[in-house]
Amino acid sequence: MKPKGFIYIWLIANILIVSIYSLGGFDRINYAILNYFYYLSSKLDFSEDILVIGITDKCLERLGRWPWDRTYYLKLFSILKKSGAKAVGIDILFSEPEGQVDRQLAEISRELGKVVYSAYFNREDSRLYTPIPIISQNAFGVGHINVTSAINGFIYGLPVSLPYRNEEIKAFSIKVSEAYLDRVIRDMPREDNNLLINYTGKRPEVIAFSDVLDGKIPNEVFKDKLVLVGVTAKGLGDYFLVPSYEEPISELEIHTNAVNTIIKGAFPKRIPKRTVVIITLIVALSFLSMKERPIRILLLGLLTILISFRASFTLFSPGRIIFDCFPIILSTISNITISTIYGYFKDKKKVIRSN
User: Fold this and answer.
1) What b/e readout covers 253-291, taking b as 16+ CB neighbours within 10 angstroms?
2) Of 113, 163, 120, residue with least CA distance to 140
3) What is the pLDDT of residues 290-334, one digit of tens each?
4) pLDDT in the model for residue 30
5) What angle do CA 76, 79, 81 make, to 5 degrees?
6) Per-residue pLDDT reduced to its tens digit, 266-298
7) Given 264, 289, 323, which residue is the final one in a domain?
8) For 62-103, what is each residue's pLDDT tens digit?
9) How confident is the model at residue 351, as a pLDDT?
10) Selection from 161-165, 183-187, 223-227 with the highest mean pLDDT
């Protein structure tokens, strides 16, 4: 193999690798590595200011079949109002009217002051399901509860906002956080309009909805807290695969992790693909200059693979900076292979000439 032929093969291989990476061809592998990093890395704790009231299996046994009459929520809101809860997020759709109770619910929502209701955009019928007007008009706000599934089926983030007709519907997690923090959140890092979630890997402590209604939870527990209410019962709500958890978690738990990410300001950040491409090509150039030294290339390659993997993990834990190391690893392996083949043909050519 001539030196010029080696350069052509090297160039084609590396351009092919970075092109496939840029088009998302290695996303499954990069997500698998990311999941492994989540599993190994140190975990974020839940803020003590976040409380979760769950509609559990126990609640269904105590209060009856789902869906419940809204008088239960009216009673819950009365308790939270007396308790001095600072902000309340309701991860339950109130898209159909139920009569006089709706007016009462709207009134106590207005009195509470910082109640955020949920909306859901159904992609199958392109319809946004929102709370009925009397409820939404008396709330602090309405936020969508849609999440974004990656190519491997895991949920790493959620849309910051969804366009609908002539307006943008902010994420439920963001609206609840704004209600609690008393400010509009503008400085969130995002990836393709998605908020990346810093998962804790822990299940939040869930207070049973029925225990609150039965007076088993002291009122002072909720004072100045951010309270999230939703479904956690198995078989009733949606459950999703997320990194750092060994089993699927409920949608409410996803939003709890998202709210925790926001109020703690612990946002994961992804290094752009174009930056990864540039680094990959720079590393590859170092191999091109050593094409006639196969032993050094092998040692350099093994060191490069080790350093790139370690650097990627170090950036992620505890900083949650996501750096895709696989393109560098694959490029390095291809460079070692091409150099080995080049050295083999060069040595073979020397043997032929000497004979």
Assistant:
1) bbbbbbbbbbbeebbbebeebeebbebbbebbeebbeeb
2) 113
3) 666 667 778 888 999 999 999 999 999 888 999 999 999 999 999
4) 96
5) 110
6) 999 999 999 999 999 999 888 776 666 667 778
7) 264
8) 998 888 889 999 999 999 999 999 999 999 999 998 888 999
9) 47
10) 223-227
Q: Is 98 in the same domain as 239?
A: yes
> In which residue are the tokens 């527990």 written?
221
- Measured CA distances, 247 to 91, 185, 202, 261 (Å): 21, 31, 11, 20
Question: Taking the CB of residue 294, how many other CB atoms lie within 10 A of it?
Answer: 18
Same domain, 250 and 273: no
The span from the CA of 300 to the CA of 292, in Å, is 13
138 and 273 inside one domain: no
Is 162 in contact with 169 (CB distance < 8 Å)? yes
Query: Taking Cα atoms as reference points, which of 43, 75, 46 lies closest to residue 59?
Result: 75
> How many independent structural domains does the chain possess?
2
